[in-house]
Write a structure and sequence with these properties.
Layout: H1 2-14, H2 18-32, E1 37-39, H3 67-76, E2 81-84, E3 90-92, E4 107-109, E5 113-125, H4 126-129, E6 134-136, E7 157-168, E8 173-175, E9 178-182, E10 185-187, E11 190-191, E12 204-206, E13 211-215, E14 218-220, E15 223-224, E16 230-231, E17 235-237, E18 240-244, E19 247-249, E20 252-253, E21 257-259, E22 263-265, E23 271-274, E24 277-279, E25 282-283, E26 289-291, E27 296-300, E28 303-305, E29 308-309, E30 316-318, E31 322-326, E32 329-331, E33 334-335, E34 348-350, E35 355-359, E36 362-364, E37 367-370, E38 377-380, E39 383-389, E40 394-395, E41 403-406, E42 410-411, E43 419-420, E44 428-429, E45 480-481, E46 486-487
Parallel strand pairs: 1-2, 2-5, 3-5, 4-6, 5-7, 6-8, 7-9, 7-10, 8-12, 9-13, 10-14, 11-15, 12-17, 13-18, 14-19, 15-20, 16-21, 17-22, 18-23, 19-24, 22-26, 23-27, 24-28, 25-29, 26-30, 27-31, 28-32, 30-34, 31-35, 32-36, 33-37, 34-39, 35-39, 36-40, 39-41, 40-42
Antiparallel strand pairs: 37-38, 43-44, 45-46
């Protein structure tokens, strides 16, 4: 097929008559739209016998299709292909080496594909391979039109579902194209050297040409630890980013600059983090989330809890030109955890000359670790920098020496339950009966930055339940969630 397409394309480029051009265009379009399905039936890491012959097998005629062989065939075939993995099977990468055709090392993806698993595991074999598991290119065949940076054929679109990506020796996934991650787990990947394809992002690295959507997934226990390029322990994104109904937890960034333990975003692309929990991540700056860049960056209907930073911003560090927080619960985060710095912003830190807009949110119980003679002291510290309060925000206290609030807010003692499953796919802090956050939201209804109604809470419970919506990510109600057999309070 590939040879036919190249012949048709070269012939069409030479053709001048309009009729011949139209015929060639139709033939090329039909050929280029062909797609195939490859059923993987072996967990071994063996390449395809004849890439491009449309048959996934490791030896001609043996019928053995591996994940690596399926990707090689998909790369050779124009069209959006499908690869189906065996359920509950681990695919361990064993072919060391570095090239860009998926023959050795990581699994290079050069054409659009959907990879479907069912509790399937792809294991990068750590230091033995020393690369990411998946490297997704921006352009099909990595081909760009002559004299431009545009793709010659089309951009690459990839969907992964139902798989675990683990033990990458240079991170988990690097994406230059358009990547959708659904119901996946990205865990225990580490990147710690500049020589990697993209030296940031322990779990997932999304470049400035890419777009990344993560839904219903878990990104946990990944590490970015390079001495000069560390950022994004869980996710690093320089392009458009959407995170929905996902848990980002236990990720770590060390080294320099050490930004964004759970999530690091920078660049002009739009960033939306919604219905998600960011917890127990750590870094130097921005233990939970680091928001940067010139695009819109919004944290919506989400929980930021138990994160820590050695320097500023235990929960969220913002230097975004258009950063905003709506109906979020930000609690139990800590700054200056290593005790060696004059840091602030246990809950939220906003860098000088920037401002973060906040509405209908809870920022309570955050702290900064202050070195003292003997045992260090956790001082309350909810915010630092300039915050544009759009109303109905609850803070347990505020230090006006380093936190400037423009707009109305309330200082109150807000009762919260522990971080646990209270229904829905992610953990939340429930609102006990009598909590000051109940019915504390905007009287006209809770809305996002586009003035669209926030119709549910983080779990999917309808808002409002009562006279007003509740502040924070949790709406107190009597809804029974059958998926976890738990009752919302």
């Amino acid at each position: 097929m590939l040879g036919l397409i190249e012949f048709v394309r070269s012939s069409c480029q030479r053709a001048r008559p309009a009729l011949l051009f139209l015929v060639c265009a139709c033939v090329f379009s039909a050929a280029a739209s062909a797609s195939q399905s490859f059923i993987v039936n072996s967990p071994s890491d063996v390449p395809d016998a004849i890439p491009g012959d449309h048959v996934c097998e490791t030896v001609a005629g043996n019928g053995v299709c591996t994940l690596r062989a399926a990707i090689q065939e998909a790369n050779s075939n124009f069209g959006a292909d499908t690869i189906v993995l065996q359920p509950n099977v681990t695919y361990l990468l064993t072919r060391a080496g570095s090239e860009d055709k998926a023959l050795n090392g990581d699994l290079d993806i050069l054409d659009s594909v959907t990879i479907i698993g069912a509790a399937s595991v792809v294991d990068g074999n750590g230091a033995a391979i020393g690369e990411r598991l998946f490297e997704i290119y921006r352009c099909i065949r990595d081909q760009r039109a002559q004299g431009t940076n545009d793709c010659e054929f089309a951009e690459v679109f990839v969907t992964m579902s139902g798989i675990t990506v683990q033990h990458g020796g240079a991170g988990g996934i690097a994406n230059e194209g358009h990547l959708t991650v659904e119901n996946c787990t990205v865990t225990a990947n580490t990147i710690n050297h500049v020589g990697a394809f993209y030296p940031w992002g322990g779990g997932i690295a999304n470049t400035n040409t890419g777009s990344l959507s993560v839904t219903g997934s878990v990104v946990s226990n990944n590490v970015s630890a390079d001495d000069t390029h560390s950022a994004g322990g869980g996710i690093y994104s320089a392009g458009a980013l959407t995170i929905d109904s996902t848990t980002i937890s236990g990720n770590v960034v060390t080294g320099t600059p050490g930004e964004g333990g759970g999530i690091y975003s920078v660049g002009p692309g739009k960033v939306i983090i919604k219905n998600s929990t960011v917890s127990a991540n750590s870094s130097v700056f921005g233990g939970g989330i680091y928001l940067g860049g010139s695009g819109n960056a919004a944290v919506l209907n989400s929980t930021v809890s138990g994160n820590s930073s050695d320097d500023d911003g235990g929960g969220i560090y913002s230097r975004s030109a258009a950063g905003s927080v709506y109906n979020a619960t930000i609690t139990n985060n800590g700054a200056n955890i290593d005790e060696f710095r004059n840091a602030t912003g246990g809950g939220v830190f906003v860098q000088s000359s920037f401002m973060l807009s906040v509405a209908n949110s809870i920022i309570v119980g955050n702290s900064v670790l202050v070195p003292t003679t003997g045992k260090p002291v956790h001082d309350p510290d909810q915010c630092s920098g300039s915050i544009n309060s759009l109303g109905n925000n609850l803070l347990s206290d505020i230090d006006l020496d380093h936190c400037t609030m423009a707009g109305p807010y309330n200082v109150a003692s807000v009762a919260l339950g522990p971080l646990q499953y209270n229904g829905g796919p992610t953990k939340t802090h429930a609102l006990p009966s009598g909590s000051a956050a109940i019915d504390a939201g905007n009287a006209g209804g809770c809305v996002d930055g586009d003035a669209a109604p926030i119709a549910t809470d983080q779990r999917g419970v309808p808002r409002p339940f009562g006279s007003h919506c509740d502040a924070g990510a949790f709406e107190a109600s009597d809804v029974i969630f059958l998926n976890r057999f738990e009752i919302g309070i």
